[in-house]
Amino acid sequence: MAVVSFGLLSFVLCLFIIITSQASAQRCDNSKGNYTINSTYHNNLNTLLSSFSSHAEINYGFYNLSLGQEEPDKVYAIGLCRGDQNLTECLKCLDDSRVALTKECPNQKEAIDWRAECMLRYSNRSIFGLIETQPMVRIVYLKNVTGSVDEFNDVLESLMRNLSSTAASGDSRRKYARASKPAPSFQTVYAFTQCTPDLSSEVCLKCLEEAIAEIPNCCSGKAGGNVLKPSCRIRFDPYSFDGPLVRIDPDNPTSQGKSNTSRTNGTIIAIVVPVASVVLVLTLFCIYLRVKKPRNFFEFKREDNYEDEITLSESLHFNFDTIRVATNEFTDSNKLGQGGFGAVYRGRLSNGQEIAVKRLSRDSGQGEIEFKNEVLLVAKLQHRNLVRLLGFCLEGRERLLVYEFVPNKSLDCFIFDQTLKAQLDWERRYKIIRGIARGLLYLHEDSRLRIIHRDLKASNILLDQEMNPKIADFGMARLVLVDQTEGNTNRIVGTYGYMAPEYAMHGQFSVKSDVFSFGVLLLEIISGQKNRGILRGENVEDLLSFSWRNWKEGTAINIVDTSLNNNSRNEMMRCIHIGLLCVQENLADRPTMAAIIEMLNTYSLSLPIPAEPAFYTNNRTVSLPDMQSREYNSRETGSSKLILVQESENEASITELHPR
């Protein structure tokens, strides 16, 4: 009986390795449409899937190709091999997937095939650079771990988190990481994580984290498992399953990894001997399982109740020729401006709708990342104070973003122009301030995704026909978890002068770094001066220092733009006070956008005393022992008055803020 049990266990182990190496899981999507045999789409699909081997320049196992002129006959395909597969193994696996999909999905326009060594998917819509987490397949190895499950799970989680960070930091050719780690009871966990390399680092990490979160649902306490998604995958296993990592050599497209022979010898010896000793019992056992319980070792599960958070709708995709015609071949006469990653053009669609097209520079290494980031974020944002994304175009080297056309250009064109600023009286400026605040509050708290803009400035605020503000340019934005309030980055992006000190110096960004930028922008709107400097005789003083000094000396009226009248002086003083609260050096002292909205809307609410702003350059200090908390009451234009409220003994404002 002991011999039989040992033989059965050996068979289970052997069966797991064989199935994992050879079996596949397909998903055929009927909802995306079907094609007929010998149709244009069918011919394009066959040609494209058979062409992978002809791309000799690709030696890193990632193929993202398309074929066809126009939808619905254009085919997009992605082929991705595991990082330890050499070119020969990779192409064989992809070809096996092609054959399997031809058989299992004979006429679906969208399908996917997962294998242990590769993944192949195709569609009649653009699938490049987009995170897609459904459909999902979970493969479970039903052998339980030995020893403490909690300790094993701790080891597994730590390993997976580290691998996810490593994989996400990869380049546009490979986002793959693997490692092993000792586990309790003399076990070893082998694992890998992988994303399609067309994803940005942040989006890749998000996809992998969601995959890791599935482990407790399917594989808790199990010795092995897989979570497969279109954009990423993870795997852990009690046995080594991969070979030498294939070196990417751009000068030698056919470079290969070392032979995988050595990795199989030990496994073959360990498995064949015990299996051979009980071959008859195992054969009968295999027949029994095949007939009675064919899915007892693995569970293939598709999650039907999922919420597709970021997948872009097919209707958002624009044909490049459509945009080219709309912009009159991107003529200079239609050019609205030039940004850090490309130009913006005005265009008109065939139905008469006016659009603004952001065309990323082809030679911009960062442009591709910013393009994907902006598409993924803005497509899900709907707010009156955010510029609306109408669609995008991703064809060849062309990356275009199509926005609603906002006729009055950007805020900086008005407030920093000595002639045009006269069009912005205080009522309009106050309307713009509140609109920007509402847009930021939506990004930080009310949208389905928590977003930190990171590049809020006057040139990124567009004005519509009624001079309503619309926050634009999300190329620098960062997506964070809904319950996450801050993050870190090694890549500082944005505009100096608007950057919070903790972000500019240490790469720490948060909703409070956006609040800092809002405070700078608020002071610019009030003063009509750029933050980089205000001329004082022969000296130049930055806007924050100028505002702080005048506020402390009781001459805050000097901050106000001279083109404004004093009818709403009380409201102007209150906004200066709010601006100084926003630019305090300690981020914990800065209000949230919810609190700022309350300050702007509730005029009876007293405001805390601001601390010295960050980057304050004036060494002269003003002693104000009797400094009092200021409350700016009412919006009356004639008899508005400044009410002084006695400060409490602990230097805090008597009226506390209660953000909604």
Automatic annotation (TrEMBL):
SUPFAM superfamilies: Protein kinase-like (PK-like)
GO molecular function: ATP binding; protein serine/threonine kinase activity
Residues that span the membrane, as ranges: 268-291
Binding site for ATP: 358
GO-annotated biological processes: response to stress
PROSITE patterns: GNK2, PROTEIN_KINASE_ATP, PROTEIN_KINASE_DOM, PROTEIN_KINASE_ST
Domain Protein kinase: start-end pairs: 330-604
Protein keywords: ATP-binding, Glycoprotein, Kinase, Membrane, Nucleotide-binding, Phosphoprotein, Receptor, Repeat, Serine/threonine-protein kinase, Signal, Transferase, Transmembrane, Transmembrane helix
Localization of this protein: Membrane
Domain (Gnk2-homologous) ranges: 23-127, 133-241
Cellular component annotations (GO), alphabetically ordered: plasma membrane
Pfam family, one: PK_Tyr_Ser-Thr
Residues making up the signal peptide according to the UniProt record: 1-25
InterPro entries from the UniProt entry: GNK2, GNK2_sf, Kinase-like_dom_sf, Prot_kinase_dom, Protein_kinase_ATP_BS, Ser-Thr/Tyr_kinase_cat_dom, Ser/Thr_kinase_AS
Topological category with respect to the lipid bilayer: Single-pass membrane protein
Protein name per UniProt: Cysteine-rich receptor-like protein kinase 29
Annotated source species: Glycine soja
Source taxonomy: Eukaryota, Viridiplantae, Streptophyta, Embryophyta, Tracheophyta
